[in-house]
Amino acid sequence: MKFKKRKRRSLWIDVAFSSAIMAMTAIALLLIFNTSDRSTNASPNKSKKETKPEILVDSSDSNFPGVKIVTETTNDPNNPFAIQYPQTEFTDFNDEILEYIDQWKTRYLKSDSDKNSTTPKELNISFETVQHKSGNYSFVMLTTISTSESDSQTEIRTFHIQPETGKGIKMTDLVGGDVEKLKRIAKVVRDHIYQNPEFKDILLAENVWTPTEPLWKNYRNFSLTDDKIIFYYDAGVVTEESAGPAIVEVPLEKLNPFLAEEYQVEVAEKSEGKKVALTFDDGPDPKSTVRILETLKKYDAKATFFMLGSRVEYYPEIAQQVAEAGHELGNHSWNHPSLTKVPDKKLYDEVQGTTDIIQEVIGQPATVFRPPYGAVDDRVRAITNLPVVMWDVDTLDWKHHNPQKLLAIVKAHTRDGSIILMHDIHKATADGLESVMAYLQSQGYSFVTVSELENY
């Protein structure tokens, strides 16, 4: 049998085939390596993935019907917080509370911790519930942000709700919407701040006037109990910032005449005796006012002087004597026009100019306002934040200039709580004041300023 001789394969084919095998092997190894590398790298990433901080929310019943206590806490070591707030069945109220909470959360999360502090920053919000016999709840929210052991911010805010209706009480409700009553409440609150012994060393006396002005916005932050109103002021507003928020408690008894009937309290009969307020308009005068001051001092009496700005400017030293003697100063306009008949610009200048000159000369503001001629309307009342004070006994001393008639009118018309109108620019008034005061004292009257009367 013959065999055919096989043709020998080309060398180049073998080389090409071997090269292809090697290339495929290299690619396979590379793929295996890359897959292994990705797998190796992926594992640490998964292990390093941070768990999102958990916020725990709990709700429980409170001791007050219709109110639940919601508690929020977090395990975030960098931004720990503990928050409690009230919740009711009323959406609008709940939304108002949540908006307040969210504002503080946002502010807190944006704050930075003190790098040198050994304690982390922290947010705490808690609340106290105060109830009034009307059913109204006042929720007093206390918020504190701490960024270090020595650096913290504290705020007190109040929210109100009647759990049966969902409506919240406001200062306008307490005074029946009467701005004149708010003006009188403002005076009482201001006096309580000045006289509070706890504020003796921390009071910012020069700051007290502005946050206590009788503006509705200044009297939003309060709580109401059966026997008092508690007002809250942020740190640094009326007291030094380091002292924290200031709390001012005013007995409802002190505010009774200015409150709407449903918020008044029963007041026990007091045996303080009868009171009368002597008031003097149109001064100061270098002769008559000085004589009147001497007579008042003789009876250890305090009075109220409603001054004209133009005369304070002309006789500043007499105005100072009145203030230094402890009497109350009132604004009586600049030039004594009938304020209901002047244009707005003139009205403003008459009142504000007098306010400014009294502050400049005396170093303290007037505390009451009396319109010339008793001419007053809503426009005049709105131009000043001072209580508008009238009178119930007009001595007509400006008309008769007679000391005997002055005394006769006082005898005929004065009663407990009367406000007596006189003028300290007339010689006859200065002449007759001694007899007037002797008579009133003999009838058991004590002399007080207008603001010291319970209802003026």
UniProtKB/TrEMBL annotation:
Its EC number is 3.5.1.-. SUPFAM superfamilies: Glycoside hydrolase/deacetylase. Residues 38-57 are annotated as: Disordered. GO terms for molecular function: hydrolase activity, acting on carbon-nitrogen (but not peptide) bonds; metal ion binding. InterPro entries: DUF3298, Glyco_hydro/deAcase_b/a-brl, NODB_dom, PdaC/RsiV-like_sf, Polysacc_deacetylase_ArnD. The chain crosses the membrane at residues 12-33. GO terms for biological process: carbohydrate metabolic process. GO terms for cellular component: membrane. Keywords: Hydrolase, Membrane, Metal-binding, Transmembrane, Transmembrane helix. PROSITE patterns: NODB. Pfam families: DUF3298, Polysacc_deac_1. Residues 274-448 form the NodB homology domain. PANTHER family: CHITIN DEACETYLASE 1-RELATED, GLYCOSYL TRANSFERASE-RELATED. This is Peptidoglycan N-acetylglucosamine deacetylase A. It comes from Sporosarcina newyorkensis 2681. The lineage of its organism: Bacteria, Bacillati, Bacillota, Bacilli, Bacillales.
